[in-house]
Design goal:
It comes from Aquabacterium olei. Keywords: Chromosome, Methyltransferase, S-adenosyl-L-methionine, Transferase. GO terms for molecular function: methyltransferase activity. It is found in: Chromosome. The protein is mainly β and 167 residues long. The protein has a domain of 108 residues: Beta-clip-like. It is built from one helix and ten strands. It has a four-stranded mixed beta sheet with strand order 1-2-10-7, with no helix packed on it. The protein has a three-stranded antiparallel beta sheet with strand order 3-9-8, with no helix packed on it. Strands 4-6-5 form a three-stranded antiparallel beta sheet, with helices on one face.
Length: 167
C-alpha cells in the first residue's frame, strides 16, 4: 500500500534580504521620505509635485542648504530677487536662515498657497514638510509661506477662493 503523504511542496530555501547600504561616509542621507518631482507650476515658475500618494500627517521630506546669519540672508535675498526673482531662503531662528539656492532637494520648489496641502516646520534647525491631508500623486505640493521679505508687494497666484491676495 502506498504511503499517504500530504501533497505540499517543500518550502523554498530562505534567501536573506539584501542589506541596505548606508550612504558613503561624508555624504548625507537623502532627506526625502516620499518621491517629489519638479515641473512647471500653474502657480508660479517651477513647482514640487507628489510622485506618489502621501498620507495625511506624513513627513514628506526636508530641504537642506547653507546656514547663514540673517544679515547675509537678507542681502542674498535682495540680490536673488534682483537677479533671478527666485529666492530659496528659510529663517530657522531669529539669527539664522537656510539658503537652499544651491540645494538639490526638490521641496525647495514648493510654492506658496493660501490653502496649502503641507506645512513647513523648523525643528532643531532642520526645515521639514508634513502633509496636512492626503495628497494624490501628481498634486502640486504647497505650503503657506507666512511673513516674507516681499512685504505685501508680491501678488499671490495660488488661485484659492480664500486667497489673501499678496505676500
Amino acid at each position: 500500500m502506498p504511503s499517504l503523504r500530504p501533497l505540499i511542496p517543500p518550502a523554498p530555501p530562505e534567501v536573506p534580504a539584501p542589506a541596505a547600504s548606508p550612504a558613503p561616509r561624508g555624504v548625507p542621507a537623502d532627506p526625502q521620505k516620499y518621491p517629489v518631482n519638479v515641473g512647471p507650476s500653474a502657480i508660479d515658475g517651477q513647482g514640487a509635485f507628489a510622485g506618489a500618494a502621501i498620507p495625511a500627517r506624513a513627513k514628506i521630506g526636508e530641504i537642506r542648504g547653507e546656514f547663514v546669519d540673517m544679515a547675509e540672508a537678507r542681502a542674498r535675498a535682495r540680490r536673488a530677487e534682483r537677479d533671478t526673482g527666485r529666492i530659496f531662503m528659510v529663517a530657522v531662528s531669529e539669527r539664522r536662515a537656510v539658503d537652499a539656492t544651491a540645494s538639490t532637494d526638490p521641496l525647495r520648489y514648493a510654492n506658496h498657497a493660501c490653502e496649502p496641502n503641507m506645512v513647513l516646520k523648523v525643528q532643531q534647525g532642520r526645515v521639514a514638510f508634513y502633509a496636512l491631508r492626503d495628497i494624490a500623486p501628481g498634486e502640486e505640493l504647497t505650503a503657506r509661506y507666512g511673513a516674507t521679505h516681499h512685504g505685501g508687494r508680491l501678488v499671490c497666484r495660488c488661485g484659492s477662493p480664500r486667497c489673501i491676495g499678496r505676500l
